[in-house]
Amino acid sequence: MKERQLLFITVIGEDKKGIVAKISDYLFKTDINIEDINQRIMGDGYFVMTMLVDIGDSKESMGEIATAVEKIGKDLSVRIQLQHENIFKMMHRI
Questions:
Q1: Which end of the chain has the smaller Cβ count within 10 Å, N or C?
Q2: Residue (of 74, 93, 92) closest to 19 by Cα position
């Protein structure tokens, strides 16, 4: 078991079936563990989801993960953004 490497995933777009399923299926297949997930429908059918995932056990590089989720986002017509925990911490230092 490798050291934990946390990554934030944010998904925004028009609500439709299969968004959570397609993303979580990719994560499962690449040994990425979902630590926390929050999703909701806002306004006139806007889907918003945030996930905190651990990529420490995955054989995929950060670049490979980014490429794969970008393709999933295009297939689903949603915007998916990734941010490594270290960047998040640096941006929010006091």
A1: C
A2: 74
CATH number of the domain that 23 lies in? Answer: 3.30.70.260
pLDDT digits (tens, 9 = 90+) for 31-46: 999 999 999 999 899 9
> Residue type for 44, please?
D
- Kindly report the number of other CB atoms within 10 A of residue 49's CB atom: 18
Element (H, E) at 15: none
Tell if the pTM clears 0.90, that is, is over it. no
How many domains does one find in the chain? 1
17: left (phi over 0), alpha (psi -120 to 50) or beta: beta
SS3 3: coil
**Dihedral class, residue 50 (left if φ above 0, else alpha if ψ from -120 to 50, else beta):** beta
